Amino acid sequence: MPRMFREDLSRNFGFLLNDVARLMRTAYDRRIRKLGLTRAQWWVLTHLFRGDGVSQTELAETLEIEKPTLGRLLDRLEAKGWIRRAHDARDRRMWRVHLTEEVEPALRTMRALAAELRRDALAGIGAEGRERFVDTLLAIKGNLSRIPANMPPDAPAAPVGPKSATVPRRRSR
Question: Which of 3, 33, 76, 121 sits a CA distance of 20 to 30 A from 113?
Answer without folding.
Answer: 76
